[in-house]
Specification:
Structural class: mainly alpha
Shape: globular
Order of helices and strands: HHHHHHHHH
Helix content: 40-55%
Largest sheet: none
Mean pLDDT: 76
């Protein structure tokens, strides 16, 4: 009889420990990997909001835009933030955090785009998903636009780092990047809602209004409007001229090469 009671007690304890183990193995509600983040449209929206961290930076506007037709300040040249605007060029006048912060946001956009496009939704949630995809495209386009304005030709990637076949990337011609930016914005404006529709509760997010403005600005820059503040290849005068239209210069060079090869 004692043996039977003993066996029953052991079996009961084993069941309890097994149940306890299953309970402790439950997934954390605060888990933030791709699988959990894109399990619901509300969580996905939070991931989209995180993409904005590298879009509007004080470093960019204070050091690069100050003194232009978009922004001005009454502060003196003694403030390092005003050096670039007053043509005082040195190490302190160059934007320092734009490069890494912009690429951080671009990586988040690429990850969000992959996750959002893999979601299977219907009804209003599906509509929201399409809007968030368009929003990520617009944010990514803005980051790349800032990068080529300050640094000229830069690495260009539209897939998450984990999906890349190589971790090294050479600089891509800014004209090719302009084409990518315009394509992203053209897709975004078709889906994003007007701000007056009330989908976005704050003007700090990119609506159709803002996307059209960004598209117009990018088209001007790509066509040769003065935009390049800092360039990594400024030593080559012809290759760093955005004022006269780099596309026209490159086109003329190609035409000359074709003419010489024929003669």
């Amino acid at each position: 009889m004692k043996k039977i009671v003993y066996y029953i007690a052991v079996a009961f304890l084993a069941i309890n420990f097994s149940s306890c183990s299953d309970f402790l193995d439950l997934p954390s509600k605060s888990k933030t990997d791709s699988e959990s983040v894109f399990s619901s449209i509300d969580k996905a929206e939070m991931a989209v909001l995180a993409c904005y961290t590298g879009v509007w930076m004080q470093d960019a506007w204070y050091k690069a835009q100050n003194g232009t037709d978009e922004m001005w300040s009454t502060e003196s040249n003694s403030n390092a933030n005003n050096y670039a605007a007053n043509y005082v060029l040195n190490d302190q006048s160059c934007p320092t955090g734009i490069y890494t912060t912009s690429y951080s946001s671009i990586e988040r956009c690429n990850s969000c785009l992959k996750g959002l496009r893999a979601m299977s939704l219907s009804g209003e949630d599906e509509r929201k998903c399409h809007i968030y995809i368009a929003e990520c495209l617009a944010v990514r386009a803005t980051c790349f636009l800032n990068l080529i304005r300050y640094f000229g030709d830069v690495p260009y990637s539209t897939v998450p780092v984990l999906d890349m076949t190589t971790f090294s990337s050479s600089r891509v011609d800014r004209d090719e990047i302009y084409d990518g930016i315009i394509a992203d914005l053209q897709e975004a404006v078709e889906v994003l809602p007007w701000y007056s529709e009330g989908f976005f509760s704050t003007p700090e997010r990119i609506s159709k209004n803002a996307a059209y403005g960004l598209l117009a600005r990018t088209a001007l820059y790509a066509a040769g409007y003065a935009c390049l503040l800092y360039t990594s290849d400024a030593a080559d005068e012809e290759d760093s001229v955005d004022l006269g239209g780099r596309r026209n210069i490159k086109k003329k060079k190609q035409e000359k090469k074709k003419y010489k090869s024929k003669t």
